[in-house]
Specification:
This protein is mostly helical. About 65% of the residues lie in helices and about 0% in strands. It has one domain. It holds the Pfam family CLN6.
Length: about 290
Amino acid sequence: PSVPSRHGAVKADDATKTSPFHLDLWFYFTLQNWVLDFGRPIAMIILPLEWFPLNKPSAGDYFHMAYNVITPFLLLKLIERSPKTLPRSMVYVSIITFVMGASIHLVGDSVNHRLIFSGYQHHLSVRENPIIRNLKPETLIDSFELLYYYDEYLGHSMWYIPFFLILFIYFSGCFTPAAGQGRMPLAAVLLVGPSSLYYWYLVTEGQIFILYIFTFFAMTALVLRQRRKGLVPDSNGLFLLYSFVITLLLIALWVGWLWNDKTLRKKYPGVIYIPEPWAFYTLHLSTLRGATGG
């Protein structure tokens, strides 16, 4: 029976209980990720500039605002459907941090993307950009670097760390003792491709490979640990696990394709070389688009 608490009714842990595949939530989750996150910079480029002046929020900004509201709601609904009692306080703190980080990113990302219309080249560092390095006084350059820090580092950290933490917390409850339940329905198989492709974009554009790979290793270790107890991932757990596996393959293909790109190599030095799709766009595709009158 449910036991009341300060946070509402708490489900009793039941190792024999499993959940059906949450087609509605996973579909809405994947759809809004593609439209509101991946689609926001595209909308900003495609829609006429006269509709969204440079000193006003762009269409992408409104997409981002919607994402910041819908995504935490869907994450909470996922947690609610877990057959296992999950740490409520950790979930709430993660959601609050997620919303704050995504909101910080909204402001920084909005300005950085608007700078593209003024000639900002995303494949270059802030100080190497022609429109930035000639600013006077030079302290203005420090301000743009601060903006970049809020966008690419602080915003991403406060956004993505709780995001992957919530997914892992949810995954920890997606196990069942019945081997026959550890299968993905056709709907999950069809949805795993778009989901994996979005995670590829999230990891590469967000530059969060270390966070992603640690989450993936933690999920794999949890699967091995639960198997010793006779438990296997249910359909929702398999959907998340396979999405992460395919994402890793897509990242490997992306890195292999751009392995010898000297310009991107300069932008992303170090052992972990994973170029951002937007850096690739401003380096190779934006000039092509302008030459063709696109």
